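[agent] plan:
  1. take the single chain provided in the ticket
  2. run structure prediction with default settings
  3. attach structure tokens to the ticket
  4. add a short note for the reviewer (M.T.)
[agent] executing step 1
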Amino acid sequence: MSNIKPLLRQAARPFLFLLTFIFICAFLAHYLTGDETLLEYARNNPDQAYGTQADSAKESVENDKTESVDSALPKTTTASPTDQTAEPFPAAETDTPVTPSQADTYTDSKDNIAGASDSAMADSESNTVNSAEVSDTMEQHPERVTYEEGFYYEPLTDAVIERITGISYPEEGCTVPYEDLHYIGLRYIDFNGQEQTGELICNKAIAQDMVEIFHELYRNEYRLESVRLIDEYGGDDTASMAENNTSCFNYRVVDGTTNLSKHAYGLAIDVNPYYNPYVVFQRNADGSDYISPPGSEIYADRSQSFAYKIDENDLCYRLFTAHGFTWGGNWNSTKDYQHFQKVIK
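[agent] step 2 finished; step 3 output follows
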């Protein structure tokens, strides 16, 4: 028996050496190369991550929001002092397109889903207006309501009407009166941690919601890359999404139908849309999912962790839903992770 133990120890040495070697290799591989991030995966595997849109990959930075969520959520929602007795709006949008007479149950879909045209992009570049300069220098409406410093809403001034007419607001056939819309001035923190001035146009019925929500996002340093009127993108929704622009009003129909989108009423907003894409399951001819905007395909995988992702734990989600908005990420056959909308009775 005493002779067997040395033999067993001698026989086990090669296996112990092999296990030690494997452990050292794994240790070095992990700490020398690091875990592959979502963005690194996209860059290393452009065909899988972006299809033919590899050049449009966005750079992601650390998500260092300083959220104090419980204090940010409103205990009560202050009603807008403006008149809210406008005609009833369509009810929540569902997954099944219907006729205009059934507008109480229609689907909100992305317009211009084929992608932004070169001419639209060229127009938006040539007509770009610095949002901060516009907000600081344009005329002030006598009915302006200031919620906090830098956060206000007001009826559309002549200058704003001139900016949007013929772009987000068609010159003919628009069924939403200018009087139903309000201009929102706000502040936000951009992806570089810098304070910026932004602007939105929304329905007057949700103007108070907007200033309250965006003030809390600002106070908690929630990052938004861009908050500009969609008119700066020629009214092209896809071009705006591709630039990760947060926007609200745009008079357009639901793709493939004659039904007006919630955005046409100023009752829907898209937040950080590049990182929170619009997904239609098995829509493509090959049975794959349709994802918009082009280049954001990798962010459709919501099991991954990445910056600027909206989910049910996100401050943006919690604020909008606390104010009575519904989230497109909870839809069934489609997912619109960027989209919040509110139904006004």
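[agent] step 4 note for reviewer: Residues 65 and 222 are 5 Å apart (CA to CA).
[agent] ticket updated
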